[in-house]
Amino acid sequence: MLRYTSLEARDGGALERTFHVYVPSRVQGRVPLIVYLHGGAPATSTAALDQLVRSYDEFADGRAVPWRRNTPTCQLSFPRPPRFEVRFEDAQGQPCQPPAVSVTGNQPFILVLPEGLADDPADPASTDGQHWEDGRVPSPGQVGEAERRDDVGFVDHVLDVLSARPDVDPERLGITGGSNGGMMTLRLACHADDPRTPRLGRVSAFSVQVATLPEALHLGASGRRACPTRGQRPLPIAFFVANDVETPQCARFGCTSPTVNGDSRMPYGVPGGVYVVNSPDSGRVIAADDTHRRWVEYATASGAGAATQQTTTVGFFTSVRTTTFAGAPARVVVYETRGGLHGLSFPRNDYHGVARPLEFLLSWRLGPSGDLRYEPATGVFSGAW
């Protein structure tokens, strides 16, 4: 694991920024670069390095990753109150265990794990210690509306530094993240046409897990740059979300009437609504369907042409909505799981929650003149995913 540090000029001083780079030993020639943005993490952790337990390095290495997939007779339970335990159950609600399966990544890639900065110690409500300034107001773990660093510029800098490596394919850059990191991924996608962050304009695809668009980015409020409604090119983007679980977490926050379904932290919501994450925490977001539709409209306005949607299913609880366009290869894909949870349980074991986002990111190439190509090569993964 390589560790990079850089200094970010800020308010007359400098912030030390850190990112970690994992280069598998099997890398030969130029390979894709995948940036993973961590979610909110406790102050005692190193948030980025903690993500290595989530199979990203194993897939980059080509190691077989074991997991358990739902079967017709044994499935991951729907965590209804008062019992929120997550376990596999049979049709009678008794514990069971499906057989172990495995998935192997056959496409080597270089993994980048940037670090968010520590939360503001003046925030008495903060229970986590490391976040991205993802566009919510105030930023998670911060007090007040002002932003305290340039996370968008930091990730652009990371891409600029690493694109110069001789083993990185500059036409295959992907960004993904979950929760707070998922919102940050959306914010970065909103800057893909910003001349101040030119490397973000070279990202070939984005993947967003259990996250929706912050309201301030939707509206351009409180000093946050509005997410544009069109750009120089359409952006391939995949969403992995869950619904039909009560949220916010009333047991933790003392509320009495959850008003939106979601994945117990990240609201899914009803179109047209605006919601908070872990009420009464601040940081309003728009509904998931509104977020997805916004990116379909962005692609159409950016020259992709007329949109066509197709719906398929994966496993027992997941629908997959794939929007393609008449005039460009870009796609907007939504995996929506009924009863999924936050973190790695969001697919409810209908599919592997790391392999599927990676498969999407590894299927795109952006040429030097901006020509986008969809290259869903067979054999990127083998096994069950």
Looking at this protein, list some descriptive labels:
single chain; 385 residues; alpha+beta; ten-stranded mixed beta sheet; three-stranded antiparallel beta sheet; 8 helices; globular
Lay out the secondary structure.
Blueprint: E1 2-10, E2 13-22, E3 31-37, H1 47-50, H2 56-61, E4 64-68, E5 75-76, E6 88-89, E7 100-105, E8 110-114, E9 117-118, E10 130-131, H3 151-163, E11 168-178, H4 180-189, E12 205-209, H5 215-219, E13 237-243, E14 245-247, H6 250-253, E15 260-262, E16 274-276, E17 284-286, H7 288-304, E18 307-314, E19 318-325, E20 331-338, H8 355-361, E21 364-366, E22 372-374, E23 381-383
Radius of gyration: 20 Å
Instruction: Tally the helices.
Output: 8
Number of strands: 23
Structural class by helix and strand composition: alpha+beta
Explain what this protein looks like in three dimensions:
This protein has eight helices and 23 strands. The chain has 385 residues and is an alpha+beta fold. The strands form seven sheets. A ten-stranded mixed beta sheet has the order 1-2-8-3-11-12-13-20-19-18, with helices on both faces. The protein has a three-stranded antiparallel beta sheet with strand order 4-7-23. The mean pLDDT is 91.
